[in-house]
Amino acid sequence: MLKQISLIFAVSLAVGVAGCATDPTVTSRTVIVAGVGPVEIEQLDVEIADVNAAERMVIVRQGRQTWPVAVPEVFGDLQNINAGDRVQIRRVEGVILGAKRARKGAKPAIVYTEAVSGPSFQNLPDKFVVRTLTLTARFESFDPATGIVSYVGPLGPRTRTVSDPGIQDGIRRLRRGDMVELTFAEGFHFQKY
Fold this sequence. Notes:
10-stranded antiparallel sheet; 2 helices; globular; disordered N terminus; Polysaccharide export outer membrane protein
């Protein structure tokens, strides 16, 4: 299971980093998840271009674009990842679990903390691995009428709906330009083909 999580983690990081590359081909569709509501499933098809197990780094490629992905030790070794492997990655950015002001001097970042086994995405069409991540981003705005928070993170401008009243109260105290740490639960699914 740990080896499977390591491949999922490596490839899912590629999805996040792909947002930094110019024009990655990402398709999406909306599904309704019990207890969460409508969520977008993003799909990205990549090829593993290179694996450097000693440096814990993989290079993924889509067309002529390539980008590096660092894989932390907690996710095991890289023995199941080989150059030339074709992988279809599906990602669901889900529920905001928390929001707080970031420490002074924080820069936009994504930190994957751990795999979680909570029920957040149990009725997705395939078996997704669910985990948490903390995103450090620049706060732009919050609309209390719609519950939509806008922020700019490492992947550019994004919006998410915040449904938890406690989290909404904390977000209301932020000012435009403040750095914020948003904690998400999200799901990943991969399939080698």
